[in-house]
Predict the structure.
Amino acid sequence: MSPNQRFHHISADLIKPTECARVVSEVIAWNNSPPDIVWCCAGSCYPTLFIDTPVEQLQHMMDSNYFTCAFMAHAVLRTWLRSSERPNTEFSTPSLPRHLIFTASFLSFYTFAGYAPYSPTKAALRSLSDSLSQEMNLYAAVCPSSIPRVRLHTVFPATIFTESYEAENRIKTDLTKMLEEGDEGQTANETAKSSIAGLERGEELVTTTFLTRLVMTGVLGGSIRGGLLKGVLDTLLSWVMVVAMVFVRKDMDAKVRKWGKKYGASGMKKIE
């Protein structure tokens, strides 16, 4: 930390696009400049079987996990990229790129029973990140000297041991808990350190565990690889994962069927 650093907080309901725009405006007024880094990490998880999930929760999952990021990205990118919407202030670091960071999940790459209300919202976030990553090349080409380049990043944590995780476990089915037994999880500090380390390396898709990276390599599609060497390594890993995931999915499907035969369709163990 530098003695010149300042801290400020703003309370806002990021589900509302007008609130996201207000946050950006207030930050600019306080800092006399647009922010250089925006990290979107608002969200929540409601891990229940799909047909047992209240419809309102399906909407809330998309609102809190996807639209909070989409609305904030829209507000800050318009400020960064459109001259008509930029304030009459100098960029604080005109020669350095700006960074927009999303927080997705391991479940963006591979999901399983009990996460149907949640996983699609994180998969959508990854798709938004890929789309915006390519769009930023347009502005970099048109205004290479007058607008700092914008870099997109998405972090994909797995289980994080927090109070929110404990709250999720109170509504999570025993079936889902059984399926995720192999996830050792991380503390919040461990996740933060891994995330920042990946960002400092310049990675566009940042994984916080080796298992997440392995699974990611099998579904990279058109996402940025992050250089020739990393691209080659991820390709080699993907060849392994293409085969491995066949057996992983088969095993997990078998576990779900076995669970249903033994305990029924509630997802919970029967109390004798």
User: Anything to note?
Assistant: The mean pLDDT is 91. The helical segments are 17-31, 55-81, 119-142, 163-171, 174-179, 188-200, 210-217, 228-263. The chain is about 50% helix and 10% strand.
